[in-house]
Design a protein that fits this description.
about 150 residues, about 85% helix, mainly alpha
Length: about 150
């Protein structure tokens, strides 16, 4: 069974992991928004759907980074607050301190692999299809209205 120290280490790791994941997801969505600002549809529903799809598409990159940075920041927190010394003095080795974080990260990675077997694996393609359809529809609208502009001049 889990000891109190291992439960504490898992909670500390998950807290740092989710904070990092949220920050990186927002950062990636912001960068994507700035790159595709012209092509994002004017429809609110399509915009929300596009960002929903992009959130899962960015998860490919941000999840791996968050797993690593969450472990690093958790370990640095333990060193900085002298909790690592307290855990070692209570009989835990450094390997035993890192092990709960490692197994938690491995479990999250396995869950993400199973998520790729669902429809979420195609969300990147769905987001690109929204942008592509928006580009084509705005191009068609411009072509329809361009003859009016020429006739007026």
């Amino acid at each position: 069974m889990f000891s109190t120290a291992k439960t504490y280490l898992i909670k500390l790791y998950l807290k740092n992991f989710f904070i990092t994941l949220l920050g990186l997801e927002i950062f990636f969505l912001l960068i994507d928004f700035l790159q595709n600002q012209k092509n994002i549809p004017n429809s609110t529903n399509l915009t929300i759907l596009y960002f929903y799809y992009q959130t899962f598409a960015a998860l490919k990159i941000t999840l791996a980074l968050s797993l690593i940075f969450g472990a690093i920041w958790s370990y640095l927190y333990l060193v900085r607050s002298n909790e690592l010394t307290a855990l070692e003095s209570s009989g835990m080795s450094k390997r035993e301190v890192i092990r709960p974080m490692f197994w938690t990260a491995a479990g999250i990675a396995i869950l993400y692999m199973f998520l790729g077997l669902t429809k979420a694996g195609y969300y990147y393609d769905d987001a690109r299809a929204i942008l592509k359809n928006t580009k084509q529809s705005t191009k068609k609208k411009w072509e329809k209205n361009s003859h009016r502009i020429r006739k007026c001049s």
